Amino acid sequence: MKYTIIKAGLILQVFLAYALLADTKNDPPLDNKLWTANEIGQADFSLKPDKTFYYKLVNKLGQATQLKIHAFFPKDHKPENQSPAILFFHGGGWYGGTPDQFYPQCRYLAMRGMVTFSAEYRCINTYKTGPQECVKDGKSAMRWLRENASNLGIDPNMLAAGGGSAGGHIASATAFSKGFEEADDNKEISCIPNALVLYNPVFDNGPKGFAHDLVKKYWKDFSPIDNIDKNAPPSIVILGTKDIYIPVSTAKRYEQIMTQLGRRCDLHIYQNKEHGFFNIWVNRNDLVETMLRVDEFLVSLNYLQGPPLLKMSK
Fold this sequence. Notes:
The structure is a single chain. By secondary structure, this protein is of the alpha/beta class. It has one domain: 3-Layer(aba) Sandwich (Rossmann fold), CATH 3.40.50. The chain is built from ten helices and ten strands. The radius of gyration is 23 Å and the shape is globular.
């Protein structure tokens, strides 16, 4: 009897160990952790760039200075990976702002497998330049990434651009605005993104659009919505109904033009949301919700694979 009990106990231990091993095998790897909105910025969801590069030498009040691109890489990324990538431009009305605005989006998409970047550009307050220089820098940054694609481990044919507000304008301007090129840029390298991720973009600068008085001398070439063509990149546009800078009608006009040209535009309108509602310092759950829409869009373009890694916080 004693032997039988001991034997049964050993069998039970072996069974439990096997069951535990099998259960562990079915657990998702740590890299696929489902992060909540409140965990953004913690542990592996770091908001610190992995590397910083200099992409352009410019004049800053009489002094030469380098503009930076801040990079986020997937885990164990190597140059030979040739991953899809996206470059973000911060908002601030062309007057100010900083690249860290899009660090949450950068880190998240890097964890999902893309190489991501957030760029500095010449802002009016700091450089005493104008909106034209913002667009010139945006185009230079896109060209720099393509020129250095093999060293960065990115696919130059899967390079998206994104941004919020004035940054959304710059991203769309790299695709649509005519001219505004830096004289010493290599024009043989395209600055046009393969996809656009636009958060409340101020991409209408016409007579009734954003900051028209500031750009009225050259708005016809400068305003992205007025220069959309049949080669327009697929776009996702995110906007709140209470945005005081870009009315819903403008976003719907963008969508209509894109559709008429046979181009894709995914327009997401959020009720009672104001300008910049997606930012981490405004509402983390809104940040997550909009990122899930971006994730869905990028999956459809084959820039990402598998399920998202974010969920709302309770």
